[in-house]
Amino acid sequence: MPSVVRIMIAVSMCASAYLTGVYAGYRNTWPVPEMKILAKSWPDRAFGRTDEFGRLLHDPTKMEIPCPVQDATTAVLLVLGQSNAANYQGQRYQSADDRVVNFSEGHCYVASSPLLGADGNYGESWTLLGIKLVNSGMYSKVILVPVAVGSTSIRQWAPGGSLNRTLLAVIRDAKPHFAFTGVFWNQGASDFSLHTPGDLYRSELKSLIAMIRAEGVQAPFYITRSSLQLDAGWSEDNPITRAQASLVDGKSIFAGPNTDHDIGEIDRFDGLHFAASGQEKFTDAWLRLLGAQRRATR
Known about the structure:
Layout: H1 3-27, H2 32-40, E1 49-50, E2 56-58, E3 64-65, E4 74-81, E5 100-104, E6 107-110, H3 126-135, E7 141-148, H4 154-157, H5 164-174, E8 182-186, H6 189-193, H7 198-214, E9 221-225, H8 239-246, E10 253-258, H9 259-262, H10 276-296
Parallel strand pairs: 4-7, 4-8, 5-7, 8-9, 9-10
Antiparallel strand pairs: 1-2, 3-6, 5-6
Helix pairs in contact: 3-10, 7-8
């Protein structure tokens, strides 16, 4: 076959494949949905394993260690929410030793970004917070138990929601090993975009807290003020932040950092997710808050 003919056939086949791909992508027909599912269940980490929500559950690059014995100087933090509670931030961190630990599925690992239990493949703030809590002398060890998925709504987390069963499983998996000392809730931006009514957001979050309490988790529950979106019309005072603030009672439910106010555009690499400077501000705010509360209870 003349080389010119072969070239023409090859070009024709490439063009046909390209146009088929464009059509499939536009119409969301096979194999696009299947490829999306595969991509979500196979993160960009060699032989990593995720769940149906994209939460990283196993990563062979992590350093597994024996789970520590909890004592009065151990913090065990259940971390919940959407992307800024997950692995979507600008800077990755790694603990230098076994004093900051990531717990997942009955196993313990030296904490490092991205954390097991959350989705996303980038940086996160919780390892940095653990390092600061240990270095400050506030705790001798910090155990991180994340359950966080980007772009999720309060409905997905509340009883009956798609993520509620996953949250219950994580709590029950951790209970034989540890007693939680704090629950950190960092979510709200999706519900601002969805125009979730404030009273509905409040009711759903209240039912989520009640469910966690029913599982025997009586640790302080901290609500981060978080609703920032790039949507037109966003302001710090909105139905979501008012709902978040209304649940704080100063007894068992406490205000976490106000990221809407304190972490500005310059501290967010894409307008939403924390850059390294935002991660520093966020963890410093937690350090001050937890330190003040610890001193007040002594």
